[in-house]
Amino acid sequence: MKVGVAGYSGPVDQPPVSGLEELCVALGEAIAREGYVLVNGGRDGVMELVSSGASRANGQVVGILPHEDRGNEHLSMAIRTGLDFQMRSFIMLKNVDVLIAVGGEIGTAIEILGAYAYSVPVILLRGTGGWTDRIAEILIDGKYLDSRRKVEVFQVYSVGEAMEILKNIQEAK
User: Fold this and answer.
1) What is the pLDDT averaged over residues 11-21?
2) Model confidence, pTM
3) Distance CA 40, CA 99 (A)
4) What whole-number distance in Å separates Cα of residue 9 and Cα of residue 45?
């Protein structure tokens, strides 16, 4: 299964990313230990931290990069799209089975909405701030982004809960 992770970009040693380091590394490690392929934007911030955890656990990490960016050092495979940040996100979303959101600004919001539009299940890792927490406030019945109810948006508060949802999604396939 291919697991996308979206979240804050920016330096890993500065807020808000620095406050999520332990969680992100643990998430990457857990994804790799289950044998899932981690797919993300391949750059800094949450992407780099989750990639480092997956790499440390000998997992496969695919970075879908904007422009001609080279990506972070933890990528097993870097795919340079030549596209801007938003357009590369849609390539990522077409190539994942589920998306996990960790905090994030407008790029993460676009990825959450895009995943939902493509009927890709979304897991919001709550308590991480940004659009991950904001978008939870508008969910219909706590699960859907619109009245079509295309796919469930899950809300979790820990890496362990996220991994349980991933297992359930994989079993349902």
Assistant:
1) 97
2) 0.97
3) 9
4) 4
